[in-house]
Specification:
mainly alpha
Length: 206
């Protein structure tokens, strides 16, 4: 019997995580686009009408931080995070799979500490009712809380990746380990670009 491809064996929970992460990254992109439009309007209004909206730079900084944290989970699910593979590409497949697993563990530990201290920042702002020293006087727990939620979701996704990759590593399913946390090969990237091009051509013909 022909074995199904690794990506098809990840299950419904994995697809749910991918869907939610995709929604989060689109929301973050929309937030970034909104901040660009606000800054553009602010510049044009100041140049031609002599007034400005006030707070465009402040809001854009919040948008940047929030959209970045919301995009982290999608990036790691797509294996788009930066990995130094100078030595990695010459390792035996099983050895490189162990390094892939260790990379997820290391990333999880780092994000765990980061999320813990991010919660401390949000909690401090909430309890002290801290506000930005700007004309808007934004309660800092609001942008910090949205930023923190992105980190929390990243931790949830990393936990799922760690469980699935650990199970695959123990059972010897190296292909699945690679599909979860391996470095993307040049062939995979080329195939994805080709598929994307085909979708664009198909949409253009409609």
């Amino acid at each position: 019997m022909t074995q199904s491809p690794p990506s098809a064996r990840l299950g419904g929970l994995w697809r749910c995580a991918e869907t939610l992460s995709r929604v989060a990254v689109w929301a973050g992109g929309a937030l970034t686009l909104a901040s660009v439009l606000l800054i553009s309007f602010d510049v044009l209004a100041r140049r031609f009408f002599g007034f400005n909206t006030g707070g465009a730079d402040e809001l854009s900084s919040y948008a940047f931080a929030i959209s970045t944290s919301w995009a982290l989970a999608f990036a790691v699910l797509q294996r788009a995070n930066v990995r130094v593979d100078v030595v990695y590409q010459y390792l035996p497949v099983r050895v490189s799979a162990i390094f892939d697993w260790l990379a997820i563990v290391s990333l999880g530990v780092f994000l765990g500490f980061m999320t813990f201290y991010a919660f401390d920042v949000v909690h401090t702002s909430w309890t002290s009712q801290a506000a930005a020293n700007t004309p808007l006087g934004t309660p800092l727990w609001i942008p910090q809380g949205l930023w923190f939620l992105g980190l929390v979701w990243m931790c949830v996704v990393l936990a799922l990746m760690l469980v699935r990759s650990s199970t695959a590593l123990i059972t010897g399913d190296i292909a699945l380990v690679k599909a979860i946390c391996g470095v993307r090969s040049a062939q995979e990237e080329a195939e994805e670009e080709a598929a994307s091009g085909e979708r664009l051509v198909a949409e253009a013909r409609r």
